[in-house]
Specification:
Elements lengths: L6 H9 L1 H4 L33 H11 L4 H8 L11 E2 L12 E3 L17 H5 L4 H18 L3 E2 L24 H17 L3 E7 L10 H6 L9 E3 L2 H8 L1 H8 L4 E4 L3 E2 L2 E2 L4 H11 L5 E4 L8 H5 L21 H8 L5 H17 L20 E5 L4 E5 L11 H10 L2 E5 L11 E5 L40 H12 L2 E5 L5 H8 L4 E9 L24 H11 L3 E7 L14 E6 L7 H9 L13 E2 L19 E3 L8 H7 L3 E3 L10 E10 L54 H5 L42 E11 L5 E3 L2 E5 L9 E5 L2 E4 L4 E9 L5 E3 L4 E3 L6 E5 L7 E4 L2
Parallel strand pairs: 2-3, 3-4, 4-6, 5-7, 5-19, 6-9, 13-14, 13-15, 15-16, 16-17
Antiparallel strand pairs: 1-2, 7-8, 10-11, 12-17, 18-20, 21-22, 22-27, 23-26, 24-25, 24-30, 28-29, 30-31
Helix pairs in contact: 3-14, 4-14, 6-7, 7-10, 15-19, 16-19, 17-18
The chain binds beta-D-glucopyranose.
Length: 877
């Protein structure tokens, strides 16, 4: 049999270990080369008593105990790129009635499918500051994934967090503030998982830029690098900033986590034992499975020992036909390199996540779409062109979610400026709408694959985080319909470059001009207008700044609407008196035009808050991306620590255009009666004790007879490039592996303790049973209330915010710790804002004790409508 060769794959299995936790040596390197990731072994196994996982554990155990070694390998290793219908699939276990698990993007809807909805970006829903809407969006997205037969929805996103505004994928996440992102993660995850779909918190961690995230991609762009960029993050910053929202995700019971492409402190995220074993599974007590980003796995056994549970999409690189796992994982268990408890734990984690969200064997929804074609019939094994059958059922799963999407995009639209009562519009006599961003893409809403272009209105940014529109309501279409029903005159010029015609239109008497502009970004595998995922600058695209300057010089009632993936520099025009209103409408999804019309005409009274800072220059952010490699393994030192976004602007006391948390309403609010109540809470106890010993789940030992693992020719045909758990030869382990170094001394270096299955000490900042860290971190120490009164003349929502100054010399002046969206306050009505401040909210990460500690420094709290408007203040006793 000559189906496969495994030379490449096995070499990596047995040499990859060394790579997991050593610093690669190379010539050009600055001081940052010293960033190292300490080893953390063994990989923590599941805890049968983990809160909310007990029943899932029992069900998983009953299932996994019946599995053969090859079935377990099949469950952990993807079938290869385009091997089945989803962007990722693992092998089925037909003997036990388990169909292949389907992993599918995206964080805004079901990617690569028809008859699905396209929701707002994460960043846009974050701007609502509304937990109910965050949950509702998650639930609706989960239901659509479920209806299509998806097992794991690949979202939500907390990495990138948004270290720098240029980051190409910031819009997929929520906000550079870890608390807003953490709440958004938790609500979205609950929603998705309540629909019976496993959520995937991604990308762990430090994936803050697209440039150099993967060496082959960067080489394709002409950069000379050999390995992925290393995000060098210290332990304190990790805890206080980047890991924080992942802790919330774990606490919310997320079933899966995706490790990222980049290296963290010079160790690849998907084989970084400190990250996966130490922080995630050890300290945070994560019970679900870790899957690799697509082709982010770089080694075999070492990635398994470092805590990876599922290899996606399964091949070493797209369509290589080789695998780091698959047959090599089988062999590594038989020859004793990988302990049996580890493969059992991998299978347990996958199956526990499966059962936790309510799945039952025999009741899985069959995947009824194909990611690679909209044809009804086609090859189910797309890469190989094999298995011709019906692959697209075209099931409509939208269930009227358009109404919710319209509401979220409207309630996520931030009113940044409103003068001369420009808004809300009230039957304007003459409405002129200007700009490419108000119209449609001539190629249609899905005209560019994965939205990889910026033509027409920006309803969705680009990359794997997108989905195919069922329709896209343009601002032009919706505003025209509204204007006509009001009897207004309506004319639009859907281009940025028709300046003569634009001047003639908007300089007419009494015209209200609405200018639509945008700035786009996306994932690194697509470059748009020279932006290789990340934005090259923070200016508006297609000469948008010039368009605004021109229109506002001709028309004294110019309203600007911005669709963007983050902040843009507005300082050249935002203070002009002729620019009477400015709105940030984020990345709104399919209902774009309807949502903006609802806000412009006051059907929805805006209350959204900007989830990031609008600086006056690019430099004012204090952080930027690396655009040119600084070595063959690019290094990015996160030397700013947790001083990103508003924390930096506050510390530097820099002027800015719009601060984090800022947003206007058509009414006004007053804040009063701040009240702080100290709660009784026990003294914080670091967790002590040990885990159980690594459990033996399998009922029988796997055979060591290589003949038992040979490809079963008689049973089914071999599919080209498909990743199987079987061997193609059995004469010896060396031959099966095709590794020239197989069996030689040092060919299988194993990090110290990596195979130790004895009981292990629990992490002091972790918990005996509760996922998300020591449960005492979530004890409420203070309850804070304030009164918020609608002092204007129309009903509206208000978003009060609570900030804390932790008071230490290294602390940001203030950090967000609580917020709410008080809904529908009528004129004169008062609402109560209440925040429970937890121990975690008031603590710093102490690297010496490896725990959270409340410092002796005085703690002050501030309450108000934005990060720079905080009328109420109190000191905590
Ligand atoms: C992206 C992930 C995505 C995966 C599968 C990767 O390139 O980074 O976010 O889930 O592809 O499409």
């Amino acid at each position: 049999m000559n189906h496969l060769t495994w030379a490449l794959a096995t070499a990596a299995v047995f040499s990859g270990n060394a790579r997991a936790n050593t610093v690669p040596q190379f010539a050009e390197r600055d001081a940052s080369a010293s960033a190292q990731s300490p080893p953390f072994y063994p990989s923590p196994w599941m805890n049968p008593k983990a809160t909310d996982w007990e029943s899932a554990y029992e069900q998983a155990k009953a299932f996994v105990s019946q599995m053969t070694l090859m079935e377990k390998v099949n469950l952990t290793t993807g079938v290869g790129w385009e091997g089945e219908q989803c962007v990722g699939n693992v092998g089925a276990v037909p003997r036990l009635g388990l169909k292949s698990l389907c992993m599918q993007d995206s964080p805004v809807g079901v990617r690569d499918a028809d008859f699905v909805s396209v929701f707002t970006s994460g960043q846009t829903v974050a701007a609502t500051f509304d937990r109910q809407l965050l949950y509702a969006r998650g639930l609706a997205m989960g239901q659509e994934h479920r209806g299509k037969g998806v097992t794991v929805q690949l979202g939500p996103v907390a990495g990138p967090l948004g270290r720098a505004p240029e980051g190409g994928r910031n819009w997929e996440g929520f906000s550079p503030d870890p608390v807003l992102t953490g709440v958004s993660m938790a609500e979205t995850i609950r929603g998705i998982q309540d629909a019976g779909v496993i959520a995937c918190a991604k990308h762990l961690i430090g994936n803050e830029q697209e440039h150099f995230r993967q060496a082959p991609e960067a080489v394709g762009y002409g950069y000379n690098i050999t390995e992925s960029v290393s995000s060098n993050i210290d332990d304190k910053t990790m805890h206080e900033l980047y890991l924080w929202p992942f802790a919330d995700a774990v606490r919310a019971g997320v079933g899966s986590v995706m490790c990222s492409y980049n290296q963290v402190n010079n160790s690849y995220a998907c084989q970084n034992s400190k990250l996966l074993n130490g922080y995630l599974k050890g300290e945070l007590g994560f019970q679900g499975m870790v899957m690799s980003d697509w082709a982010a796995q770089h080694a075999g056994v070492s990635s398994a020992l470092a805590g990876l549970d599922m290899a996606m999409p399964g091949d070493t690189s797209f369509n290589s036909g080789f695998a780091f796992w698959g047959p090599n994982l089988t062999l590594s268990v038989i020859n004793g390199t990988l302990p049996e408890w580890r493969i059992d734990d991998m299978a347990m984690r996958i199956m526990a996540a499966f059962f936790k969200v309510g799945n039952k064997i025999g009741e899985q929804v069959t995947t009824n779409f194909a990611s690679w074609t909209t044809d009804t019939y086609g090859p189910v094994h797309y890469a190989a062109g094999k298995g011709y059958q019906k692959i697209n059922e075209h099931v409509d799963v939208r269930a009227g979610h358009g109404t919710l999407i319209r509401e979220i995009a409207a309630k996520g639209t931030v009113l940044l400026k409103n003068t001369n009562k420009a808004l809300p519009l009230n039957k304007p006599r003459f409405l002129a709408v200007i700009g490419d961003d108000a119209g449609s893409n001539p190629a249609g809403p899905n005209g560019c694959s994965d939205r990889g272009c910026n033509n027409g209105t920006l309803g969705m940014a680009w990359g794997s985080g997108s989905a195919n529109f069922p329709y896209l309501v343009t601002p032009d279409a919706a505003l025209q319909a509204k204007a006509l029903s009001d009897g207004s005159v309506y004319q639009s010029i859907l281009a940025n470059n028709q300046l003569d015609a634009t001047k003639a239109l908007v300089s007419q008497d009494g015209v209200t001009a609405v200018v639509f502009v945008n700035a786009d970004s996306g994932e690194g595998y697509i470059s748009v207008d020279g932006n290789e995922g990340d934005r090259n600058n923070l200016t508006l695209w297609r000469n948008g700044d010039n368009l605004i300057k021109k229109v506002s010089s001709w028309c004294n009632n110019t309203i600007v609407v911005i669709h963007s993936t983050g902040a843009v520099i507005v300082d050249k025009w935002y203070s002009s008196p002729n620019v009477t209103a400015i709105l940030w409408a984020g990345i709104p999804g399919q209902e774009s035009g309807n949502s903006i019309t609802d806000v412009l005409y006051g059907k929805v009274n805006p209350a959204a808050r900007t989830p990031f800072t609008w600086g006056n220059s690019r430099e004012s952010y204090g952080t930027d991306l690396l655009y040119k490699p600084n070595g063959d393994i690019p290094q990015v030192d996160f030397t700013e620590g947790s001083f990103i976004d508003y924390r930096h602007f506050d510390q530097a006391n820099t002027s800015l255009a719009y601060e984090f948390g800022y947003g206007l309403s058509y009414t006004t609010f007053s804040y009063s009666n701040l009240h702080v109540t100290k709660k009784r809470a026990a003294v914080y106890q670091p967790t002590t004790g040990k885990t159980i010993t690594a459990p033996t789940i399998a009922k029988t030992k796997p055979s060591t007879n290589l003949n038992d693992y040979i490809f079963p020719d008689a049973k089914f045909p071999y599919i080209w490039q498909y990743i199987y758990p079987y061997f193609n030869t059995t004469s010896s382990g060396k031959e099966a592996s095709q590794d020239p170094y197989y069996g030689e001394p040092n060919s299988a270096y194993l990090p110290e303790n990596a195979t130790n299955g004895c009981a292990q000490p629990l992490h002091a900042a972790g918990d005996k049973v509760a996922p998300g860290g020591n449960s005492a971190l979530y004890d409420v120490l203070y309850t804070v209330t304030a009164q918020v009164k609608n002092t204007g003349s129309v009903t509206g929502d208000e978003v009060p915010q609570l900030y804390v100054s932790l008071g230490g010399p290294g602390d940001p002046p203030k950090v967000l710790r609580g917020f709410d969206r008080l809904r529908d306050l009528a004129p004169g009505q008062t609402g109560t804002f209440e925040v429970n401040l937890t121990r975690r909210d008031l603590s710093n990460w102490d690297t010496a004790s490896q725990n959270w500690v409340i410092s002796d420094c005085p703690k002050t709290i501030y309450v108000g409508p934005s990060s720079r408007k905080l009328p109420l203040k109190a000191t905590l006793a």
